[in-house]
Every structure is written in C-alpha cells, then in structure tokens.
TrEMBL record:
Superkingdom assignment: Bacteria
CDD domains assigned: BTAD (cd15831)
OmpR/PhoB-type domain ranges (all copies): 1-91
PROSITE patterns listed in its UniProt record: OMPR_PHOB
Species, as recorded: Dactylosporangium matsuzakiense
Any one of the GO BP annotations: phosphorelay signal transduction system
Keyword Membrane: no
The name this protein goes by in its record: OmpR/PhoB-type domain-containing protein
Length: 1181
C-alpha cells in the first residue's frame, strides 16, 4: 500500500489506485497514515473524526464502525490492526509520502552540508516532487493543523536548500532567481530567502540588483519588526561589497567525482573545528577516508575565505627536505602566490618565500598524507602558523604532527551494522550505504535487499568499515554476489585489488594501503605489531608483554607508538572493564568519542584555552601550573617533573598526570577516569583513535587496545612469513590459561563481580586460545582451559556458543583420549551438558549421561566442586526424582563447601518441582537462597530467587513473588545477563496483575513489547501474558491476535523449550474452547500435552490438564471435568493460584455439579497415582 497525504488523499494497493469514499473514511485513513505502524488511541481518532462535535455516545463502537467500513473500502485484509486501545495502519513508513518527504529532505540537507550538491539536488527535488497540493485536506482539528504547519515549514526549508544547492549553476540560476522573488513575495520576512537572492543576483553579475535586494530586505525588517538584518543576511551583503576589492580565489580543490557518503556529521564537526582552530590534523588508519573528509570540508570553507582553500598532496614526496618546495610549487602553479616574492634580488628559500607570501592571505592549506615526512611537515606548519596570522592548516596523517596548538580529529572506520540485520537497520549504517552507493555505480540497478542484507553487513564488518576497503569490495560486486564476496574475504588482500587506476599506487590495493604504514615502522615496532595479530579481541599491555616475551614497560611504550601511528586503536570501553581492580601503575580507559584533541607545548606555562566537550587537551610544562578548568568530556594531561596539588576536574573529564617523582591520588569527579602515566616513547601523550564511550568509573582497569581486522590479517601474514606464528599463539594460550585458572574459584565467591570484570573483556582471546590448543593437539591444556572457563561461560549469557566451545574441546579429547586428565574430562563434559540444556537442546543421549556419571565416580576426590553435582543434575535431566533426591540428601549430609551446598539445595528444589511437590520446592529453594546469601554468590542467588518467585506465585503469595523477581532482576543486571533478565521482567509484569491490577500489568508488558532491543522469544512471552489479560477482559479477538503473534515469534526463535511451546499452544486452545471449536481445541491440547510430557515438566502438564478439564466440560462430561481438574492439581503439585483458568473452572464445576458431587469427584482425582492421573488428563477422545 502507498498512501499520499501531501495533497488530496491518494491510495494505491499493489500499484492499483483505490478510491476511498466518504469524508470520515478518508479522515480515518489519513490520521492513521501520519503515524504508520503505531497504534493511535480511540480518543485521538474520535478527536480527528468528530473535530467539531458532538462526540458519539459510545465512541469506541463508533470508531469501530468507521474502521470496519474502511476495511471494506480497501478491499484487502491486513492493513488495519487493532490493539493497545486503538488502531494502526500496518504499512512501511516509507509508503506514506509525508514520511518519505521528511526523510528525503533531511538527507538532502545533510548532503548539502557535506557540499555534495549533486546528491543534494537529486534528493531535494525528489522530496518536493511528492507534493500535489495542500497537505491533509481531509483532516481537521488541532493535531492536523500542527502537522500541516510543520510540513509547510519543512517544504519551504527544502525549497531553500534546493535553491542553495543549485544557485551556483549558471544553467539554473535564472529560474532560481525567479522562484526566490516569488517566495519572498509570499514570505517577505524570511531572511534566508533574501540572502539567497542576494547571492544569486551577485553570482549572475547583477551586483547593483543584489545590493538593492539587501536594502529592500533591511527596510522590511526595520519597518515591520524593528530589527536589524541577521548575520547571514549581513554576510551576503558584505560579500557583494568585498567582491571588487578582493577577487575571490577559490583554490585548487577538484570537484568530487563520487557522492560523499557516511560522514555527514563529521563534516559539520570538522568544519567547526577548522573555523575555530588554526591547526587541525585528521588522524586515522590508512583507507579511513581522511583525504576525502578533508577535501569535502575544505570545499565548504573555501567560499567565505578570500583566498580559498588549497590542497597539497605530500604522498609522492620522497625526501623530507622537499616538503617546502612541493607546497610552494602547488600554490604558485595555482596562482595563489607568485613564483618569486619580488622582494629580494635573488630567489628566497622555499620556506621563507612561503611565509612572506602567505602572511597577508586568509587561506586554508590542506596538507595531505604527512605521515612519511612527519618531521618536515610539523616543522614547516609550526613556522608558517607563527608567521602567517590568517593561515589555517588542515593536515591528514596516520600519526599526529605533535606541535603547539595542534587539534587532533580522529577519523576511524565508518559505523557498522549489527550482525544479521533487518534491511532498514542495515541501511542506517554508513558503511552499508557507502557499499550500496559504490556498487550501484559499477553495477547499475544493484541495491541492498532483505535477502542480501546479512551478507552485505558481513562484508562491511569483515572490512572494519574502512571506506577504501569497502570501495574496493564494491568493485568486486560486478562479478560476485554479496554472499560469494563475503565468503572470499578470508583472502582479502588477494581479492581486493584493481582500484582506481588514477589513484596513488598505495590506494589501488588493500595490501598496498597497509604496507605503506608497515614500512614506516621501526624493527621493534614491526615485530610487536606482528605478535599482536594473535589477539582476535582487545588486550592490555600485560597480555601484549606476555606474547612479546618483553618487559611490560617497554612494550607499553611501543603500544602507544603504534596507537600514534594508527596501527592500533584504544578499544571502546569493554563491559565490566571499569569494575576491575588493578595496580595503580595500570592505565585507565581513555574517552574515544569522536571529537578533537588539543595539544599545547609551552616552556613557560600558558593561560587556559577553550576546549570543546569531547576534546582531549594535553599540556607540556616543566613547571607547575595553576588549576585549569576542564569542560565536561575533556581529557587533561599534565607533564610535571615534580608533584602537583590536586586539580579540579569537572564531571565527565579524564585527568592524567606524568610525574617521575610520584604523586598523591588526585580527586576525580563522578563519571571521570583518572589515568596513570600516558605517554609514548617519543614523549607524546596517548591519543585516542576511533569512536566509543567511556563507561562509569569504579575501580578502573588498564587501557585496552585493538587492531583493526584488516591490519590484523596483514600482520598475521607477516608473522607467518617469518615462522613465528606458532610460538606467538602458544604464548597467547598460556597467558589466558593462567588468567582463567586464577579467576575460576573467585567466580563462586563474593568477589565474583570483580573477577567477571577481569575476564569478560578477554573472552574472544580465550576462545582463540581454545581453538589453537584443540587444533594443535595440545589436549591437556585445552581441557584445563575448558575447565577453568566453563563456569564463567555457564552464566555469561551465551549458552549456545559456550556449548559449541566445550563441545570442540570434547571432540579434541576423543581424538587424543590418553591425553585427557580424568578429573578435567568430567568438568568439561558436565559444563557442556548444562550449557546445552540452557541453550534449548533437551535431547540427551542416555548412554552419554551414563558415561558422565561414570566419569564423576572415577574422578579423584577434592577436585572441582561441580563433580559433586553431576549425578544429581543428570537425575534432574532424566526426571528421576527419587534417585536425584536420594543423591542430594546424601551429599548434604556429608561435608561440602558452602557454594556446593547452595547448589545442591537448588537442584533438590527443582527435583521437588518436577515431582509436583511445590511445598518441598519452596523449602529447598529458600535454603539455597540462604546459602548463596551467606557467601555473596550473585549468580546462584539470582537463579534461585527466580525459581522461588515461581513457587511463591503458585502459592498465591504474589507480593513475595514480585519482590523475589525484582531482586533477581537487579542481580542479573549486575552480572550483565540480559537474556534471563528479559524473561524475569515479563514474569514480574505478569504478576503485577495480582498485586496492582491488570492495567499496571498491561502497561509494563506493552512497554516491554515496544522496546526494540528485546528479542523475539521474550516478546513472545510478553504477548502471551497480554493475551491472558485480554481474555480475562472478555476481548477474545484481541486475545487471539496476541496469542497468534506470540506463536509466530516463537516459531522464528531458535531452540525454544518444549514446555514453553506447550504453554502457548494451550493458550490458543483456550480461545478455541471459548468459541466452542472443540475439534480444534482437542488437536491443540494433544500437541501441548505431547510437548509438556517430552520436557517431563509436571507443572506444565498440570497447566495443560486444566484446559483439558475445560474440554471435558464443553462436551458435557462435568464429572470427568472435575476429576481432571483435581488430577491437574495432583500433577502440578499445588493449586496454582496464579492460573485464573483453574480458579474459574473450579467454581463453575462446583456450581454446575453441586457441592457434594464436586467434592467426591475432586477426591477421586486427587487419589490417583501419577500414571493414572496422566491417563485421565490425556486429551485424546
């Protein structure tokens, strides 16, 4: 469906116009269309449909009647949806012309700001072409009036933007001038229109008319408003006046041959920096797009500069002393300065001639690719800036110039899409938009689709979002599909060749881009960089030193040098890293939000210079300095040979100090990070590269580094070429084995959070170490690492991945059985079993379970505490409650450590639940909670509280259940376990129905559903609970819709527990019963009972049996229905007070049968054995 509201209402379905007759039908459709996909409340629809009154006596039914008529008028089902107290039009927002207009206009404005006038013109014309007349003519009321006014303003702004984009084109200027005159007649006080007219007339050679246009605008403003012209209008006037005395010299920048994609926000920020600072250096890795960004910003700044913007390419320079001559030649060739100053009898030296010639000019000089002549570029920049007061320099380099007054502007990779994104999510990522744009240029018609979005995202992610790499990959889409290209990126350096023939040689292949930086490194820097390639994740200096077999202090210096040279990045804040305790010599995380870095070198101190939020300011001073204010988000670094008194730092700042003589701890405001010594071997401060937030401050951890994957692949190849890869990987594995073995026992104590923060950032490295040990046949160390990591993996929120890695270790053990230590085999095997179960793999091989029990029996005593739990847990999986209970009680009677005691009580609680003993479940889980509280173990406490809340809810103690859920949620949040936390949030919300009423529960559940960060399985749970609320209210259509949506989401989710599927199928059967569709109800209940029995979950079997009781009652067998209801209680272990169906049916059957017959039937049901009860509740006829 396509809907047009920018003019008379227009509707198309499958390309076919649809006539919507009747004012109210058009009004309803228009009102829903302006908020597509969102539910509009009945009250809002009433206000739109009857804006002048009177309101119908029954507004809800009146709206429903109009909705029904609109459904018929559209002739196609599915576009109108009811829910959440209102109605929604189910169409893509882009299907509504007004939404499409806003997006196109916004994109056009961004392109205009980026000086991409071709794209801006195309986008803005497309936006304005959508208008067919006045907006929303069929819709009245205050809301409609506000929308109409807003869109009218956006339309006028888009028209202004389009004129600005085309005003410099002689072919369209005459039309632009005529349109401006018409618009000014309609909007005489709009100053931007007047400024554009002045500019257009001036560009057309009509200087006198331009000056007259200014006088007319000034007079209107003075006469009607009593105000002076705005700065924009005055600037346009001044530009006309200055034109004769100072002919503009725009510079030597070339017109862009491709659209500028992905860094629109950077253009605005960088332009502001260049306007405010005299020396700005773009720093970042090769291929990040520094040159294109600098040229784009320079083009935008060239117009107001009397002497323009001039770009000098330094990449071809081979000798540092050639730099001044190359710059002089570029500027003189372009006519900015004469080839000789004329002030000397002989030709001056290039530096002197540059300084003399540039001194009176107001010019922007762009020095591109300074890294290989960094010293010469830095020295010349400092000389020219000191002697030419109106000169500004914009430099690009892979490392800072490191001179007085330099502002650093980090240029990292383009933002990436998430893995496996939806189409709209993928297209929001700048890296994907760049690939789409460049691929369409070489393969017309190619675009990103829902089918290839995942492969496109994978390409961008594998290439780190580096623009040059993405452009090289886009060229390959001429002959490969995205899926084929993604599969071949393992050999990216061979694949990504054949770039632009006119580009510099080092930009024609991906290999050449990295090799250029590599060749600039010293031998020590190069050797370390190669070794660092074995880290697939982030790492700190201690880990790097272990791999390099070198002192940490020496390695630390080299790491920061590699950061300076854009071969390493300071990693974005890793989850939990800020909670780790480290020695005071550790380095603290640095802010890596996009922003500027201002560097000041001063032998005598200096007064404070303003620094924008997000900037890093570095001061070098041999003496002390008075306290300087630092704006929020800044990093202030001080070098001082002596101590210094504490300096105030505002919230959000990072303060770092260098003091060889030591210093006392400095106070840092909340939200700040206090850093230790941060410097490179060259004495330069550490400078962050790449985007990323600074986390909250607890005990801070060391700085973590990361290497872009493209650079890492290059370094790995170099490491392999010199035959050192095996040694580096072995040292890498040894380091992380030691870390995890040290951490493992602490993860079951009150220091759990601290150690989680220590090990969580290194899990990519641990996985890589496991892979290396398994592949190399080092099975003994592989099992040691699996046993040390398994418990962390068990509560690290990714059970499927954990089971995969543990399974890989077990497979390696099967290839080398003699090398596997028996005590470690049982730990790894049991952890694999538990993670498989948590991940939803409920099919356990009996022989495998027997083997696991045998392994536990053979393990030496005093080993890992999990060995004691193996056989009881296996009994739980097998639903052997009698054997499991016996085993647990035997172990509890002996001597076990406190953590194992808590776990045994928890296992016994679940055994009692499976046996239908809810009182026993409550008792054992309470004991487990007390045990975990005593030792401060949060994970065991969180899990147990969640199960205890379930037992409390079934007993009808709803306030206690809500309190247990809330404490468990808080603990999950502390531990960073999102998947279980989401389930608990929904469960808590559902229980609020009993403590605060259905409206409170419904509000919480709706908020959860509308949270786009939640996954489908958890949203399915929330939809189910909302369906229960709707059914309780008697709204069967809404309940059915919610149950259907819950089931749909469940079908799309991986590895869903069978008992949960049983619950959703049972809910759908309840709808069938309410509609007296007994055949369908029976079919669903047969499916639900089979699922519940396959999971051996007696409480869920009881829940299904309650519905089976309803089926029996619907067939007229009331006595059997009462017996089944009692059997359901027997199987579930209690009267489930949280199940309103049980309560409702019990009272209905008591009334229908009479008290005594009902009591007798109940007694017969409760007297059955489990086998007899299961036979009775079978829904088969």
């Amino acid at each position: 469906m396509q809907v047009g509201v920018l003019g008379p209402l227009a509707v198309e379905i499958d390309g076919r116009p649809v006539e919507v007759g009747g004012a109210r039908l058009r009004t309803l459709l228009a009102r829903l269309a302006v908020e597509p996909g969102r539910f509009v409340s009945v009250d809002q629809l009433v206000a739109a449909l009857w804006p002048d009154g009177p309101v119908p006596a029954d507004p809800a039914n009146a709206v429903q009647s109009v909705v029904s008529r609109l459904r018929k008028a559209l002739g196609v089902a599915g576009f109108l949806e009811s829910g959440f107290g209102g109605y929604s039009l189910k169409v893509d927002p882009a299907a509504v012309d007004a939404i499409r207009f806003e997006r196109l206009a916004a994109d056009g404005r961004r392109a205009l700001r980026a000086d991409d006038r071709g794209s801006a013109t195309r986008l803005l014309r497309a936006a304005l072409d959508l208008w067919r007349g006045p907006a929303l003519p069929d819709l009245g009321g205050d809301e409609a009036d506000a929308l109409v006014a807003r869109w009218a303003e956006l339309r006028l702004a888009a028209a202004e933007d389009l004129i600005e984009a085309t005003v410099d084109d002689p072919d369209t200027r005459a039309g632009a001038i005529a349109e401006l005159q018409e618009l000014i007649a309609a909007h005489p006080l709009r100053e931007r229109l007047a400024a554009l007219l002045i500019r257009a007339l001036h560009a057309d050679g009509r200087r006198a008319e331009a000056l007259a246009a200014f006088e007319s605008a000034r007079a209107r403003l003075a006469d009607q408003l009593g105000v002076d012209p705005s700065p924009e209008l005055r600037d346009a006037h001044v530009a006309v006046l200055r034109a004769e005395a100072h002919p503009a010299r725009g510079g030597n920048l070339r017109a862009a041959l491709t659209s500028f994609v992905g860094r629109e926000d950077d253009v605005e920020r960088l332009a502001a920096q260049v306007a405010d600072r005299r020396l700005v250096t773009l720093v970042g890795p090769g291929g990040a797009g520094k040159t294109r960004l600098a040229a784009t910003v320079a083009a935008g700044l060239a117009r107001p500069l009397p002497d323009g913007a001039w770009l000098v390419e330094l990449a071809p320079v081979t000798e540092a002393e050639e730099v001044p001559a190359v710059i002089l030649r570029a500027l003189s060739t372009g006519g900015l300065i004469p080839s000789d100053s004329g002030r000397r009898p002989r030709r001056a030296e290039p530096t002197e001639q540059l300084a003399e010639s540039l001194a009176p000019l107001e010019v922007l000089l762009v020095l591109d690719n300074c890294e290989h002549v960094i010293g010469a570029a830095a020295g010349l920049s400092e000389e020219l800036l000191g002697r030419c007061p109106k000169l500004r320099i914009l430099a690009t380099s892979r490392e800072p110039l490191g001179i007085l007054g330099e502002t650093l502007f980090p240029v990292g990779p383009l933002p990436l899409p998430p893995p496996l994104p939806a189409l709209d999510t993928a297209l929001r990522a700048p890296s994907v938009r760049l690939l789409r744009d460049r691929a369409a240029a070489v393969r017309p018609g190619w675009t990103v689709t829902a089918a290839n979005a995942a492969a496109v995202a994978e390409i961008c992610r594998r290439l780190d979002g580096l623009p040059l790499a993405i452009e090289l990959a886009a060229a390959r889409l001429r002959s490969f599909t995205p899926e084929q290209l993604a599969a071949r990126l393992g050999d990216r350096f061979r694949l990504l060749t054949g770039g632009n023939r006119t580009a510099l040689p080092r930009h024609q292949t991906l290999h050449a881009v990295v090799a250029w930086s590599w060749d600039l490194l010293s031998d020590d820097e190069r050797a370390l960089a190669e070794s660092l390639a074995v880290f697939p994740g982030t790492f700190d200096a201690a880990a790097a030193a272990a791999i390099a077999h070198a002192p940490e202090a020496a390695v630390e210096e080299l790491l920061h040098t590699l950061v300076d040279r854009s071969l390493l990045q300071i990693a974005p804040g890793t989850p939990g890293a800020d909670e780790t305790h480290h020695p005071p010599t550790g380095r603290s995380p640095q802010p890596v939000e996009p922003g500027a870095v201002e560097v000041h070198h001063s032998p005598g101190g200096r007064s404070r210079q303003p620094v924008e939020p997000g900037a890093v300011e570095v001061h070098h001073s041999p003496g002390g300095r008075s306290p300087q204010p630092v704006e929020p988000g800044a990093v202030e670094v001080h070098h001082s040979p002596g101590g210094r008194s504490p300096q105030p730092v505002e919230p959000g700042a990072v303060e770092a100090h260098h003091s060889p003589g030591g210093r006392s701890r400095q106070p840092v405001a909340p939200g700040a990070v206090d850093a230790g010594a941060l410097r490179t071997s060259a004495g330069r401060p550490l400078l962050p590269v790449g985007p990323g937030p600074v986390g909250p401050v607890g005990p801070v951890g060391p700085v973590r580094f990361r290497m872009l994957e493209t650079i890492r692949e290059f370094a790995l190849a170099e490491l392999g070429r010199r035959g050192a890869a095996g040694d580096a990987r072995s040292a890498h594995a040894a380091y992380f084995l030691a870390l995890m073995e040290e951490a493992e026992p602490h993860l079951r104590t009150e220091t759990q959070l601290e150690w989680l923060a220590r090990v969580r950032p290194d899990q990519d490295n641990v996985h890589a170490a496991v892979g290396y040990l398994c592949d190399s046949g080092d099975v003994e160390r592989a099992f040691r690492l699996g046993a040390a990591s398994g418990w962390f993996w068990t509560f690290a929120d990714n059970h499927a991945e954990s089971a995969l890695w543990l399974g890989r270790i077990l497979a390696a053990g099967e290839r080398h059985p003699a090398a596997v230590p028996p005590d470690l085999r049982v730990v790894v095997s049991s952890m694999h079993l538990v993670n498989s179960g948590f991940a939803g793999d409920f099919q356990f091989d009996p022989a495998r379970l027997d083997d696991l029990i045998a392994q536990a029996a053979a393990a030496p005593p005093g080993g890992h505490p999990f060995v004691e739990l193996v056989e009881p847990v296996v009994s739980l999986f097998r639903d052997d409650t009698e054997r499991g209970t016996e085993l647990v009680r035997a172990r509890l009677a002996g001597r076990v450590d406190p953590w194992t005691r808590g776990m045994l009580h928890s296992v016994l609680g679940h055994l009692r639940e499976n046996d239908g003993d809810i009182d026993g479940m409550h008792r054992e889980l309470t004991a487990a909670v007390e045990a975990f509280r005593a030792i401060g173990e949060r994970w065991g406490l969180a899990m147990t509280l969640a199960s205890l809340a379930d037992a409390q809810g079934r007993h009808g103690d709803f306030p206690a259940a809500v309190a247990s859920f809330e404490e468990s949620i808080a603990l999950h949040h502390d531990l960073g376990i999102r998947s279980s936390e989401a389930y608990l949030l929904v469960s808590r919300a559902a229980l609020r129905r009993h403590t605060e009423g259905p409206q409170a529960a419904r509000a919480m559940l709706r908020a959860f559903v509308e949270d786009v960060t939640q996954n489908g399985r958890d949203v399915s749970h929330a939809m189910l609970e909302l369906g229960h609320l709707a059914r309780a209210d008697g709204d069967l259509p809404e309940a059915e819709r919610l149950y259907q949506e819950s089931w749909r989401l469940l079908q799309e989710a991986p590895l869903v527990a069978p008992q949960y599927r049983a619950i959703v199928v049972t809910a759908r059967a309840e709808i069938d019963l309410a509609r007296n569709d007994l055949a369908q109800a029976r079919t669903r209940l047969q499916e639900a009972m089979a699922l519940a029995l396959s999971a051996r979950d007696m409480p869920v079997v009881g829940k299904v049996a309650v519905a089976v009781s309803g089926l029996a009652a619907a067939t007229g067998d009331l006595t059997r229905a009462a017996e089944i209801l009692a059997a359901a209680q027997l199987l579930a272990g209690t009267r489930d007070a949280s199940n309103t169906d049980w309560t409702t049916r019990r009272e209905a059957l008591r009334t229908a049968l009479g008290p005594n017959p009902f009591k007798a039937a109940t007694a017969r049901g409760l007297a059955l054995s489990r086998e007899e009860a299961l036979a009775l509740v079978n829904p088969n006829p």
